[in-house]
Amino acid sequence: MRKTLLATAIAAAAALPGFAAAQASSPHSVAGNMSIVSDYRFRGISQTFVQPAFQGGIDYSHSSGAYFGTWDSSVSGLTYANSAGIEVDFYGGWKGEVAKDVNLDVGLLQYYYPNARIVGAKTTKYDTLELYVGATYKWITLKYSHTLTDYFGFNTDTMGNASNRDGSFTYGASPGDSKGSGYIDLSVSYEVMPKLTLAAHVGQQKVKNFEKHDYTDYKLGLTYDVQGWALGAAVIGTNADKKWYFLTDAGSRTKEIGKTGLVVSVSKTF
Question: Rounded to an integer, what distance in angstroms lies between the CA atom of residue 180 and that of residue 206?
Fold first, then answer.
């Protein structure tokens, strides 16, 4: 009954002069998103042992340019030991036009992995905080991200004396921490024809004090809009050293998680 009364009240209000205009001019907006991907790639590296992932998020924005939101994805316990199998991101910042056709985006992003930890001499979490700044000109975006904490658990406790797959390289006993690692990427999103968008990207990851983990990643794909559903397909890959970027499961299956592959997706914004 309460639901019926509320609907009636809204309908009546909608008939009043200026109601629609007031709604349209609201300084607040909320949007959600959800997707299914054949492989969750973060900066070119598979987070799901090259398997599908379910993802979704919600965003709030204000007409002043301020925004905040959260986004979740399933991840592999092989990538994030002892984890609950989920990544939860929290972010907030400001974005707006600073010159004709030029938009600036500045904010903080917290990557959080419930229960995930590396158990060694000390317990280390994968949780990472980044500061980012990006500029967009029409359909081109340049963005830089800088870690304010260790980069996903890289430090002396977790990587001291760590050797690569064939033992051809070993980090020192005290390589240091990875706070101050950086990632820069250049992205293009261009509608080549109605409903069909081309997406291209190249980025470079630098891991402070762990140079053997530095790499470049790339992406080239297309997205097609079908009645509000985005159908995507992209070739994603990296030049990451396979001697470091690999995982082996309990069944002794080994996968190169930075290897070039085709990723397909279905997503919806509401």
Answer: 9
Distance CA 74, CA 56 (A): 10
Whichever domain contains 233, its CATH number is 2.40.160.40
pLDDT digits (tens, 9 = 90+) for 159-215: 999 999 999 999 999 999 999 999 999 999 999 999 999 999 999 999 999 999 999
Asked if 196 contacts 229 with a C-beta cutoff of 8 angstroms, the reply is no
Residue 135 lies in domain = 2-269
- Would you state the torsion angle of the CA atoms of residues 110, 115, 116, 121, taken in this order, to the nearest 10 degrees? 110
Which two tokens mark 27? 């300084």
Give per-residue pLDDT as tens, 92-102: 999 999 999 99
Looking at the structure of the chain, the number of domains it has is: 1
Rounded Cα distance between 113 and 91, Å, is 15
Provide the whole-model pTM.
0.90
Distance CA(154)–CA(120), nearest Å, equals 13
Region of 49 (left: φ > 0; alpha: ψ -120 to 50; beta: rest) is left
| Secondary structure class of 180 (helix, strand, coil) | coil
